Amino acid sequence: MPELPEVETTRRGIAPYLEKTSVATFEVRQPRLRWPIDPAIKNRIEGQPVEQVTRRGKYLLLQFANGTLLVHLGMSGSLRVLTSGTAPGKHDHVDIGLENGHCIRYTDPRRFGAMVWSEHPVQDHKLLASLGPEPLSEAFDDDYLFQHSRGRRGPVKSFIMDSHIVVGVGNIYANEALFKAGIDPRRAAGRISRQRMTRLVQCIREVLGAAIEQGGTTLKDFLGGDGKPGYFKQELAVYGRAGMPCSRCQRPLKEVQLAKRSTVLCSHCQR
DNA sequence: CCCAAGACCTGGCGGC
DNA sequence: TGCCGCCAGGTCTTGG
Questions:
Q1: Residues sharing a CB contact under 8 Å with residue A176, sequence separation 6 or more, in sequence order
Q2: What is the distance in angstroms measured between the alpha-carbon CA of A261 and the sugar C1' of C2?
Q3: Is A27 assigned a catalytic role?
């Protein structure tokens, strides 16, 4: 479910419930996520006020005075706001009970997600330290992307999906941004001109920005913190549309595999 | 350093 | 209806 727009939508949805209140209970029903949830987290955060809810890439950061809880939603994770006491389902692995009577529930059928505790400077944590810039920040510009792409022989789609290059661009938005930029996803990153790289940076920004405005993309069951689905699905030009006509030239969209990820493109419009 | 592939999981779908 | 293989919004880890 989660690429950057969905994670940001989740952050905006849960932040008002978490900020200015304290954690009453931290209940783990299934600790086996990507890494086992450290049992010590309970004692670290129960009774502690939540200072801020921020995001770095696809990691949500729940900041406390004594450290930060990093939450990653993996492929199938979600966080929802509930009233305390709602009965948990099979994949509802963690509840963060709040003193204001609400409960933040972590659900993740595939358990590719993670919940990790970090002491003070969270930006130095192993999982965050080597991440690339935020795609909507000024640090992500054409100079940056162009310079890092030189000498790279792998496909540009894998390049922009690499979180060490730029964070937050997952399979949906990589496909969309490359279509919008008119670049063939299979093209070697190092063989894209400066001018076209400028265009790509702009397209990544536009696609992610628009998706955040629409509350993300709901493919299956993603809901924002307000309980509403994301409406960006209506705007997807290529993702999930293999065989259907290209919105620009009407020729059928083609599907290929790239690094084992489904890749949809128009071989006429993307070069 | 770069890149491809494997690993971690469950559920839903189409085909037989 | 049942079983089987394949696919799915991610990314860390390993090996060449």
A1: A207, A236, A237, A238, A239
A2: 30
A3: no
Residue A86 CA: distances (Å) to CA of A15, A73, A136, A250:
20, 21, 37, 49
pLDDT at A120: 78
Q: Each residue of A142-183: pLDDT tens digit? A: 999 999 999 999 999 999 999 999 999 999 999 999 999 999
The Cα–Cα gap between A169 and A76 comes to 16
The burial of A160, by beta-carbon neighbours within 10 Å (0-12 exposed, 13-18 middle, 19 or more buried), is given as buried
Instruction: Specify whether the CB–CB gap between A217 and A232 falls below 8 A.
Output: yes
- The 10s digit of each residue's pLDDT in A93-135 is 999 999 999 999 999 999 999 999 999 799 999 999 999 999 9
Is the Cβ–Cβ distance between A216 and A176 less than 8 Å? Answer: no
Is A58 assigned a catalytic role?
yes
Could you say which of A12, A186, A205, A261 is catalytic?
A: A261
The token pair at A132 is: 């690339």
Which of the four pLDDT bands, split at 50, 70 and 90, describes residue A1?
Answer: low
* One-letter amino acid for residue A164 of the chain: H
Mean pLDDT of chain A: 96
Q: For the whole model, what pTM was predicted? A: 0.97
**Distance B16 C1' – A261 CA (angstroms):** 27
> Which contiguous run of DSSP H or E holds residue A45?
helix A41-45
Residue percentage of chain A with pLDDT more than 90: 91
Question: What CA–CA distances, in Å, run from A143 to A38, A41, A165, A189, A199?
Answer: 41, 41, 13, 14, 12
Residue positions counted in chain A: 271
Radius of gyration for chain A, computed over Cα atoms and rounded to the nearest angstrom: 20
